[in-house]
Design a protein that fits this description.
Layout (H helix, E strand, L loop, with lengths): L2 H6 L5 E3 L8 H9 L4 E3 L6 H14 L4 E6 L7 H8 L4 E5 L4 H9 L3 E6 L2 H9 L4 E5 L5 E3 L6 H9 L6 E4 L5 H9 L4 E4 L1 H4 L8 H9 L5 E4 L6 E5 L2 H9 L10 H5 L24 H25 L3
Parallel strand pairs: 1-9, 2-3, 3-4, 4-5, 5-6, 6-8, 8-9
Antiparallel strand pairs: 7-11, 10-11
Helix pairs in contact: 2-3, 8-13
The protein binds flavin mononucleotide.
The site of flavin mononucleotide has 31 residues, from strand 3, strand 7, strand 9 and helix 9.
């Protein structure tokens, strides 16, 4: 059993990414029930709503799940207590330094993985005592580092320097990406955009459809000179922001109108380049099963090549 499976207790090393408002009980329970690891987000910042989601999650599944703390966006310290009191055994931290929170989380017996976009951030996280890393390449959707390093390079460059377990994120949508990530040293994968467009994802059909329609050049990185820097679907709004260079500070304030109202111009629709690999809305269980089957088909083909010493 690899280290990510030991740390998460999931059947498969396939993690559903934390995503504000989206990574809640409806989606996370479907992923956890199917053998992956659902994650409950806290980036929406509403402590009462997150506590209610935790209650719902326990009603919907007995399977293990995790939570995420996006440290830079943490507005209320009560959220950290809610995570510690939740009883989850696995937490990812992201967007900021884990140093301040690693102590209380670990004292509570929680395994902590920190999301990193560069080798420097990985070394710093390892030094602060995290148990593992979520290695987030520039292809991924959501909050990004303006210094864009691809998942392909990042996994290898980090593995050259530290030996803690890595969950690969960014650009992975199926068993092919999972096999590639494992070849580079990952012991798990995390998928965001693929699960935004899962059947159980609570977002409006327009957002799911925009992901299905997107090709390889249909996302854009915005706000590189300010915070937050994000990757989002190309729309009239996001193209205008890209043109202007800076994102108006209230852009994400109306994100629920896009996510749940289906108005794709109300805000920006966070998504990664992996949108180009997604053609159908599918239930989480099917996504996970096809991913596992695809992973083993590819690794057994490669094992055959290795056995015959052929290319
Ligand atoms: C809609 C959306 C919202 C996201 N919100 C968060 C978040 O709240 N916290 C976080 O750590 N990562 C967030 N991410 C990034 C994901 O954790 C993950 O790294 C990324 O989605 C991986 O790339 P992929 O979209 O190609 O699968 C978000 C991604 C998306 C698509």
């Amino acid at each position: 059993m690899n280290r990510v499976l030991q740390h998460t207790d999931a059947r498969y090393p396939i993690v559903q990414a934390p995503m504000g408002y989206i990574a809640r009980a409806q989606l996370a329970s479907a992923v956890s029930r199917a053998g992956g690891l659902g994650i409950i987000e806290t980036s929406s910042g509403d402590v009462a709503a997150i506590k209610a989601e935790l209650v719902r999650m326990r009603e919907l599944t007995d399977a293990p799940f995790g939570m995420n703390l996006p440290l830079l966006f943490l507005r209320d310290i009560a959220m950290v207590d809610a995570v510690i009191d939740s009883g989850v055994r696995f937490v990812t931290t992201s967007a900021g330094s884990p140093a301040k929170f690693i102590g209380p989380l670990k004292q509570a017996g929680i395994v902590v993985y920190h999301a990193v976009p560069t080798v420097k951030a990985a070394l710093k996280a390892a030094e602060s005592g995290v148990d593992g890393l979520v290695v987030e390449g520039a292809e991924g959707g959501g909050f990004k580092n303006p210094e864009e390093v691809s998942t392909l390079v990042l996994l290898q460059a980090i593995r050259d320097q530290v030996d803690i377990p890595m969950i690969a994120a960014g650009g992975i949508a199926d068993g092919r990406g999972m096999a590639a990530a494992f070849a580079l040293g990952a012991e798990g994968v995390q998928l965001g955009t693929r699960f935004v467009s899962a059947a159980e994802s609570p977002v409006h059909q327009n957002y799911k459809q925009a992901i299905l329609d997107a090709g390889d050049t249909d996302t854009v990185v915005l706000n590189k000179k300010a915070s937050p820097c994000v990757r989002a679907l190309k729309t009239q709004n996001s193209r205008a922001i890209a043109e202007a260079g800076l994102m108006p500070p209230d852009t994400l304030a109306r994100v629920k109108e896009l996510y749940f109202g289906g108005d794709m111009e109300a805000s920006i629709g966070l998504a990664g380049q992996s949108a180009a690999l997604i053609r159908e809305v599918k239930p989480a269980a099917q996504i996970i099963q096809e991913m596992v089957d695809g992973f083993f088909a590819i690794t057994s083909r490669l094992g055959g090549l290795a056995h015959a010493r052929q290319f």
